[in-house]
Amino acid sequence: MSTLTKVSDFERTTRNLRWLYVVALLTFPHVAPQIYVLAFLIPALILFNLSRYWPAALKSPVYASPILILAVDSVFIGLLISLVGTTNTPYTAFLLFLVTAATYKYGLRGAIVVGSLQTIWLFVILKFPLFPAVALPPVQNLLVSGFDLLALGILVERLTHSDRLQREELERLGRENAAERSRLLTLVNSIQDAVFLVDSRGNVIQYNEMAASLAGRSYQLASKPFAEVLPLRSRTSPSDGTVKLLEGNASPQRRRDLIYMAEHGVVYDLEIQVTPVALGTHKASDFVIVCRDITKERNLDEQRKEFISVASHELRTPLTIMEAALSTALIDSAKLPKDTITLLQQVHRNTVFLSGIIKDLSLLSTAENDNLPIELKEVNAQPLLAQLVKDFAVQAKQRGLGLNSYIVANTPAIISTEHHIYEILQNYVNNALKYTSDGFITVTASPATNGGILFSVKDTGVGISPSDQQRLFTKFFRAEDYRTRKTGGTGLGLYLCQELAQRINARVWCQSKLNEGSTFYLEVPPFSQLSRDNTEVTKAQVSALVKEL
């Protein structure tokens, strides 16, 4: 409850009690000299009470002070008791009301201070009486006692008003929270993924029905360690032991390389999404772990990869033969009719295009199956870029484009797989040639912030919209710009670049503006740990490199 609400309740309470004081004073016997004091006291009390309704007066810090109210009321009550000349009167109950109001406003400290002042005030009044004692008739005593009961009821009602409203509000919120919790549990239980709520120590707090079904435990999972409830292992290295998802991690993470070996012998491929739960301004201490069964999806993916691998392998040979035969026919085409030569050229051009698609599919299959050849060695930017410019020089000249390379001073050598790097840069340059009608293409190598090499391919082509940039490196994506649709392609090139970059712990990204060209980047670390490609071969090559160095 805020201070403003307390002051408001306190103000309303004292005003209501003060009106009862006025009524009580009107019941006082008409005896002299008390009657003359009452003639002054009653109007003064009425005027003071009316002034408490005046907003302009209440803006004054002194006039609106609760201490002032308590002091004035103490004086009024003291004078009333002084008129009677004894404490043996129902009017003394007003002192109790005043102490109660002070206690409500200031707590025990207010009760002690106001009670002590009232005791001193009563001692002074009774020790030095100003008026002769007056005995109230029984009817008046009964009437004042009735006022006391009424005042007590008003006092209790006003002082408990805010607390009662607050209690009712808490009860309402409690009912709403219970209903919201029930709806939330129903929603979570209807999710087809296993959902766990885990604390900072890794113990399960809550879980849904799918989580219990996945874990296959007959006992309650709450308070059990998540690593015990769902022991996860890496798909690539299942013998390395249980994967600890939450160890030293306070940021969201998503993994698709985990497997869970259930008690009944079934192995599940899982996609795990870990999301920290922010608790106010404190650091996240709880985590939501969503486990999705992707076993069927992975099996279908494996079948798709196998199909692509077999199809691309089987198609490569006949396409190569067709391309060679058409090339031979075109070389010795002087005796052929012009229309026949045109048809052969169209067939040859489309055969070459189809061969490129098969090559991309074959490379995609090889990359996704982690079967790319590995050859860790020292890679220098100068011979790499020189070979790149040489390979694309003829195409650039045919399109009327400038193609050059630039190497920034102090660009270091790195330990990596040159084949991966070259494939990525080759794809960058090939795209730049496709989507640049005039201008130039510049391939640059410079020192990277991580100690490796930052490669970039800059063109003066059509550029890429911000919305398309977000999806550039996804599979089968092609920009919506009509100018890019004029050229053929599978939409796999940049996806392959990202796949290759991941295998050497490199980063790929793009910066572009429409009609101002694009710059594609490749940042390679000083040493590429090829953790996903032929682990044992990599270890052997690393050992050999260490010995050479």
Structure description:
This protein has 549 residues and is an alpha+beta fold. It folds into four domains: 3-165; 191-293, PAS domain (Beta-Lactamase), CATH 3.30.450; 299-368, Helix Hairpins; 376-548, 2-Layer Sandwich (Heat Shock Protein 90), CATH 3.30.565. The chain is 54% helix and 15% strand. The protein has helices spanning 3-26, 34-51, 55-58, 66-84, 93-106, 108-127, 138-190, 209-215, 226-229, 295-331, 338-368, 381-398, 418-434, 466-469, 482-485, 493-503, 535-548, and strands spanning 194-198, 204-207, 232-234, 253-261, 267-277, 286-293, 376-379, 402-407, 414-417, 440-447, 453-459, 507-513, 517-524. The strands form three sheets. It has a six-stranded antiparallel β-sheet. Strand 1 (194-198) and strand 2 (204-207) form a beta hairpin. It is elongated and about 145 Å long. Residues 1-7, 531-542 and 544-549 have low confidence and may be disordered.
Strand proportion, as a percent range, falls in 15-25%
Q: What is the distance, rounded to the nearest whole angstrom, between the alpha carbons of the first and last residues?
A: 73 Å
CATH classification, class level of the largest domain:
Alpha Beta
Mean pLDDT figure: 79
Give the low-pLDDT segments: 1-7, 531-542, 544-549
CATH 2nd-level architecture of the largest domain? 2-Layer Sandwich
* Annotation field: number of helices: 17
Helix/strand/pairing category: alpha+beta
Q: Would you give the CATH topology of the largest domain?
A: Heat Shock Protein 90
Q: Based on Cα principal axes, name the global outline.
A: elongated
Tell me about the largest β-sheet.
6 strands, antiparallel
Number of strands: 13
Strand order of the largest sheet: 2-1-6-5-4-3
